[in-house]
UniProtKB/TrEMBL annotation:
InterPro entries: Ald_DH/histidinol_DH, Ald_DH_C, Ald_DH_CS_CYS, Ald_DH_N, Aldehyde_DH_dom, Aldehyde_DH_NAD(P), Aldehyde_DH_Superfamily, Succ_semiAld_DH. One of its GO terms (molecular function) is succinate-semialdehyde dehydrogenase (NAD+) activity. The active site is at 248, 282. Gene3D superfamilies: Aldehyde Dehydrogenase, Chain A, domain 1 (3.40.605.10), Aldehyde Dehydrogenase, Chain A, domain 2 (3.40.309.10). Residues 11-470 form the Aldehyde dehydrogenase domain. It holds the Pfam family Aldedh. Belongs to the aldehyde dehydrogenase family. This is Aldehyde dehydrogenase. Keywords: Oxidoreductase.
Length: 476
């Protein structure tokens, strides 16, 4: 697979004619090459998006919706091809990759429908000769910067509402997973997206491309998904031209299991929340709080399930956990495990690298304390650190004691406690007896240093719209 940049409806080489290799994290093999775009290519892409904006914005909602519906159909028809490329470059098991493609297509379907419901308002005037109204209009050219862990869904979660609203877009995908982005562009072109409406600038140097996307005054909106560290940098750079901004950043999810919870259900849901994508999702559980009354039983049940997990190449059949994305990621995971053990945690299962490549054993630690790095930093790997608690108020304080505020989980059969605790948790997403809350029709996003804005659901399209208030006088 060898791809170029998509600019103004054409696949073109980078101006510097450079390209870079894409490798399979399961074995290090080269699986393709893509253009190594730079600042000059980003400028050309913005030129194209700027030219295309008035024409795309002038299309009817139905015309935009029809194209999005077609793209969704094509994604679902090509799920096997898309999922295989996604697993090859990102590493997740094929079943998870297919799940991601379905999830990504759901955003396209949802916003194909929402495109036709961008309603305005008529406001009762306080003067008889006036008429007050509000229009919702597309923001304009959007820059999208996306991460490697969900290379399809993190693009369509932005592209679909932006196109539905009438915006045009320049996308810079993660350098680790550009091929899925290229495949998606082929689909949107085939679905009928006109030249220049969506542009793709791949590159090994995100800073050079980002610098242009974040400073060009023609870009009126930046939507970023990635680490909190880079998100802060993006926010600073976007401030100089006062761009609208959406940030979907890091998380550090607490998973609270009360004494009345069903142990097997909580263990199954924790397995899903913790080990999906080898623990490389922004809403993966990162801290586990089990009530002291059930802690021993829970750890025994959970550890047995973890030991059943199969680790290997995501393309090789029945695998539950694929490789981590790169050496740095694996080193961080191992650092968290070794730090915890050095500070008194007990290793229940796992705890080491497997073989010569980027595989790490699914790991459970108990007797974890707040002083350990794993309780403070986003691990982004297959490690489940467990500590106990006694009182509801205590565990809520612990759960909220973090700069992050993306997702949290609680398990109880007590309805009053479910609402009391869910309302007290300082997180944008709360799973109550549910370890997998994400859905295209729901608003996804965080509080505090986990982000600004929401993606998905009704809220997700507002990020790409400007409200215009029109006051008409002299109507006698
Ligand atoms: N909240 C969410 O919805 C969500 C979803 C997925 C991932 N994430 C978070 O993303 C992180 C993992 O993804 P990642 O490793 O790709 O994050 P990252 O911040 O390293 O990179 C994200 C994107 O930013 C680009 N980038 C990096 N430095 C840049 C710069 N100086 N200027 C412009 N762009 C730059 C990268 O090339 C990539 O496209 C985790 O923290 C995870 O929690 C959050
Ligand atoms: O990692 C970030 C994704 O947003 C996770 S999810 O697939 O949306 O739950």
């Amino acid at each position: 697979m060898n791809y170029l940049l998509l600019i103004d409806g054409e696949w073109v080489p980078a101006i510097n004619k450079k390209s870079f290799k894409v490798t399979n994290p399961a074995n290090g093999e080269v699986i393709g090459t893509v253009a190594d775009g730079s600042a000059d290519d980003a400028i050309k892409a913005i030129d194209a998006a700027d030219r295309a904006f008035p024409v795309w914005a002038a299309k009817t909602a139905k015309e935009r919706a029809n194209i999005l519906h077609k793209a969704c159909v094509l994604m679902r028809e090509r799920i096997d091809e898309l999922a295989r490329v996604l697993t090859l470059e990102q590493g997740k098991p094929l079943t998870e990759a297919k799940g991601e493609i379905m999830y990504a297509a759901d955003f396209v379907e949802w916003y194909a429908e929402e495109a036709k419901r961008i309603y305005g308002e008529i406001i009762p005037a306080s003067h008889p000769a006036k008429r007050l109204m509000v229009l919702r209009q597309p923001v304009g050219v959007v820059a999208a910067i996306t991460p490697w862990n969900f290379p399809a869904a993190m693009i369509t979660r932005k592209l679909a509402p932006a196109l539905a609203a009438g915006c045009t877009m320049v996308i810079k995908p993660a350098e680790e997973t550009p091929l899925t982005a290229c495949k998606l562009m082929e689909i949107f072109i085939e679905a009928g997206v006109p030249a220049g409406v969506v542009n793709l600038v791949t590159g090994k140097d995100p800073q050079a491309i980002g610098q242009v996307l974040l400073s060009d005054p023609r870009v009126r909106k930046v939507t970023f998904t990635g680490s909190t560290e880079v998100g802060k940098l993006v926010m600073r750079q976007a401030a100089d031209t006062v761009k609208k901004i959406s940030l979907e950043l890091g998380g550090h999810a607490p998973f609270i299991i009360f004494e009345d919870a069903d142990i097997d259900t909580a263990a199954e849901q924790l397995l899903a929340s913790k080990f999906r994508n080898a623990g490389q999702t922004c809403i993966c559980t990162n801290r586990i709080y089990v009530h002291e009354q059930i802690a021993d039983d829970f750890v025994e049940v959970f550890a047995k399930k973890v030991q059943q997990l199969k680790v290997g190449d995501g393309l090789s059949g029945e695998v539950d956990i694929g490789p981590l994305i790169n050496e740095q990621a694996l080193e961080k995971v191992n650092k968290h495990v070794q730090d915890a053990i050095a500070k008194g945690a007990k290793l229940v299962t796992g705890g080491k690298r497997i073989g010569g490549h980027l595989y790490y054993e699914p790991t459970v630690l108990c007797h974890v304390t707040d002083e350990m790095l794993i309780q403070q930093e986003e691990t982004f790997g297959p490690v489940a650190p467990i500590q106990t608690f006694e009182e509801e108020k205590e565990v809520i304080q612990k759960a909220n004691h973090t700069p992050y505020g993306l997702a949290a989980y609680l398990f109880t059969k007590d309805l009053a406690r479910a609402f009391r605790v869910a309302e007290a948790l300082e997180y944008g997403i709360v799973g109550v007896n549910d370890g997998l809350p994400s859905a295209a029709q729901a608003p996804f996003g965080g509080m505090k240093e986990s982000g600004i804005g929401r993606e998905g659901g009704k809220a997700g399209i507002e990020e790409y719209l400007e409200l215009k208030y029109i006051s008409v006088g002299g109507i006698i």
